[in-house]
Design goal:
about 280 residues, mainly beta, ten-stranded antiparallel β-sheet, four-stranded antiparallel β-sheet, globular, Gal_mutarotase_sf_dom, Aldose epimerase, GH-type_carb-bd
């Protein structure tokens, strides 16, 4: 693990090389936050498999960030025309093997560390696409900032989806709540409800990894996400915010964790760059 430390918080990040067994084709390898520790409370984050020390890489843990290799409707993203190879920004080259999508060649990261900041840089190409990506994780007092900058290095446009996939802890009753922006809504009968104070709650407690609920939040238009998620060990919870307006925002819960996932759709012309931030303030 790589570590950041400031005050009473310690951040554990995966080393993309030595901990490659915890990575897969789904999450960005550089800047992968595995756990945040509070000196008094202990570990603050969870995952779909809860206390399992070696969860399936597809499920992950902590505060990973991800890209989609195809849209929710099934349209391929950054695949070649034959569908045999794709660029996975921050992961490497995707290929099909025995019917599954796997990493054919991982990208190589250049890492620079200080006690409170870790910067990861990579450039890689596949399937006729190419990109440069910088991921910078910094700890400022009790706020963790995840910065990303992506540049299209190819001579063709890049169309992709990128999203945060944080795994917040549940309380002892296996439930949680989150204060969302005013005007947020959730479809009925999808396992969640939002009250008049814009507080989201699961309709029931769930048990284990495979018992859960999923819904697409309807957030106020033209506003970045700014939410406060309850935490069993932090009286003021975790404030989670983005610098971008989500294109969509799923929420899901199981017996171990709840996740609010702000997506963004990116269209980059050749040579074009885009950057964004996520912020997590721990109580």
């Amino acid at each position: 693990m790589l570590h950041l430390r400031h005050g009473s918080l310690r951040v554990d990040l995966l080393d993309p090389t030595s901990e490659a067994s915890r990575l897969g084709p789904r999450f960005c390898a550089g800047g992968y936050v595995w756990q945040v520790h509070d000196d008094t409370v202990g570990p603050l984050l969870s995952g779909p498999e809860g206390p399992e020390p070696e969860p399936d890489p597809f499920n992950g843990h902590g505060l990973p960030e991800s890209f989609r290799d195809r849209s929710r409707s099934g349209a391929p993203l950054l695949w070649n025309d034959a569908g045999t190879e794709a660029l996975a920004p921050g992961a490497g080259t995707l290929v099909r093997r025995d019917g599954a999508v796997v990493i054919g060649e991982p990208c190589v990261w250049h890492i620079a560390m200080t006690p409170t900041t870790a910067e990861f840089r990579t450039e890689h190409a596949a399937a006729g696409y190419a990109c440069a990506l910088t991921r910078r994780i910094s700890l400022q007092e009790r706020t963790l900032v995840s910065f990303s900058a992506l540049t299209n290095r190819a001579d063709r446009p890049m169309h992709l989806q990128w999203f945060a996939h944080p795994f917040f802890a549940l309380d002892a009753e296996r439930t949680t709540s989150a204060i969302l922006p005013r005007g947020s809504r959730v479809p009925p009968d999808f396992g969640f409800s939002i009250d008049a104070d814009a507080t989201l709650r699961p309709d029931r407690a769930h048990t284990g990894k495979d018992d859960g609920a999923f819904a697409l939040l309807e957030l106020p238009p033209d506003l970045p996400l700014d939410a406060r998620i309850a935490h069993p060990g932090l009286p003021h919870g975790i404030r989670f915010s983005t610098t971008f307006v989500p294109s969509e925002c799923p929420v899901w819960v199981n017996g171990f964790t709840v996740s609010i996932e702000p997506y963004q759709v990116l269209h980059l012309a050749p040579g074009e760059s885009v950057d964004w931030e996520l912020r997590y303030t721990f109580g």
